[in-house]
Amino acid sequence: MNSEYVGYIASAILMLSFTFKKANTLRIINSIGCIVFVIYGVMIDAWPVIISNGFIALVNAYYLFLSKK
Q1: What is the pTM of this model?
Q2: Do 4 and 41 touch, CB atoms closer than 8 A?
């Protein structure tokens, strides 16, 4: 698959995530978009994309799973 399409898909998922009212739903969809963006970043060898979206996915995971203790 062309890396440009992966970037567009990731962008669409991230934009979709902000249409949800529930924070958990937003974080889940946003995390999926971040993971797709990490894949895109690997495909185009763009470390800023990989690092920033990886970090956001980790923050989402923290609030979804680890902060519920």
Answers
A1: 0.91
A2: no
| Cα dist from 42 to 5, 12, 30, 60, 68, whole Å | 14, 18, 18, 20, 32
pLDDT in tens, 2-58: 999 999 999 999 999 999 999 999 999 999 999 999 999 999 999 999 999 999 999
- If one counts the domains in the chain, the total is 1
Domain that holds residue 41: 3-68
b/e per residue 51-63 (b: at least 16 CB within 10 A): eebeebbeebeee
